[in-house]
Amino acid sequence: MLGNFTYCNPTRLHFGDDALEHLAEELKLYGENVLLTYGGGSIKKSGLYDDVMQILQDCGKHVTELPGVMPNPTVEKLYEGCKLAREQKIDLILAVGGGSVCDYAKALSVSAYCEEDPWEKYYLRMEDVDNAIIPVGCILTMVGTGSEMNGGAVITNHDTKQKIGHVFGENVFPKFSILNPVYTFTLPKYQMVAGFYDILNHITEQYFSGTDDCTSDYVMEGLMRSLIHSARIAVKNPEDYEARSNIMWIATWALNTMVAKGKTTDWMVHMIGQSVGAYTDATHGMTLSAVSMAYYRHIMPYGLAKFKRFAIQVWDIDPTGKTDEEIASAGLNAMEAWMREIGLVMRIGELGVTEDMLEGIADGSFIMTGGYKVLTHEEIVEILKESM
Ligand code: NZQ
Ligand code: ZN
Fold first, then answer.
1. What helix, strand, coil percent values describe the chain, rounded to 5?
2. Which residue from 191, 247, 255, 351 has its CB within 8 A of the most atoms of ligand 1, so it is best to mutate?
3. CA–CA dist 300, 330 (Å, integer)
4. Is the minimum distance from the CB of 177 to ligand 1 under 6 angstroms?
5. What is the pLDDT of residues 99-140, one digit of tens each?
6. Cα separation of 280 and 265, whole Å?
């Protein structure tokens, strides 16, 4: 039975190859001081930086730049932004980049006027925001995280080896996001496919929970089928607009909170993957792919009916003459074959994880309770060993 919920998603999206034309109308809604934040330079290489700057100038904005947001943004970078945003009395943070830049902008939006250490308040104590929030707008260049239409903001603390995501409320969602699939064409293949797996895993983290008949599961099966199909096309031809635009839209739906409604949700692959990320600074999607097969094979017996359904509905496994276990296993085998086909990292050893890190990574993995099996510390270590 579908549980009770309240649903609202306040982010306005502009989607398509002319989406940037809507930036000027969005900018009119905010004051003149804009903080333009971006990553390590991909937007300068692609020319998007020049296009955005031109629009900002035409709209009469006073622009403060905050470049250098790294993949897996750090707490030190957050402190740097807080100081700048306060000094410049920023009215709007405009994030141009991937999930890291969008997440960073949201973390900054709630931290700039936070009267205590935002890392402690939001990431260690997971408290709600009770200070002024600077509005955020996003121009997305990398597809995967769903950050463009959610309240998530993941920050890494290398000193304490913690990578933690705070899922903020509606007041922190981007006010608007500009989604032009063409901007994603320049992504290196490694980043592109890491993003594809991030999307699939966001869906499976929600799909593999609950035993009731839930509409969200049907929606997710459709999203997964479309992703599997389009990813194969995009890997062969990264400039296939049809495939890239479908994938961009799937990514948004996978994590804009809609399909989570009525679900308890799992998120254990993300918890383990994030802890791997804290130790290695590896690409987010690859930290997920590298632990996934060991994790899903481990929990399959506890959610057998759902894994069987996944095999048949998502991977077209023919159930004739097979036991439930055989059907479910065939589904996971098909998923693994697809992961290898598109070029994902399948082993944490390849990401720089060494045996001596495993206990620490397991310690840093928050244990979630919404999936088919609440893992023990020992089970996480076992999964990590199998993923080596
Ligand atoms: O920094 P630049 O030069 O822009 O290069 C980036 C970066 O090196 C590059 N890139 C992005 N767009 C490009 C491009 N290169 C060429 N052409 C383009 N169009 O790609 C690299 C990776 O970018 P990044 O933003 O780090 O990737 P992603 O979008 O996967 O974001 C990862 C971060 O998001 C968090 C992750 O933990 C990680 O910190 N997540 C956020 C979530 C959320 N908000 O809900 C949920 C996710 O599960 C995830 O945890
Ligand atoms: Zn993710």
1. 55, 10, 35
2. 191
3. 12
4. no
5. 999 999 999 999 999 999 999 999 999 999 999 999 999 999
6. 26
CA atoms within 13 A on the CB side of 282: 27
> In this predicted structure, what is the pLDDT of residue 93?
99
What is the C-alpha to C-alpha distance for residues 368 and 354, in angstroms, rounded to an integer?
Answer: 25
| Sign of the torsion angle spanned by Cα atoms 143, 224, 335, 301 | positive
CA–centroid distance, residue 285 to ligand 2 (Å) = 6
| Distance in angstroms (rounded) separating the CA atoms of residues 179 and 248 | 8
pLDDT in tens, 196-245: 999 999 999 999 999 999 999 999 999 999 999 999 999 999 999 999 99
Cα 201 to averaged position of ligand 2 atoms, centre (Å):
7
46 neighbors 183 (Cβ within 8 angstroms) = yes
**Predicted TM-score of the model (pTM):** 0.98
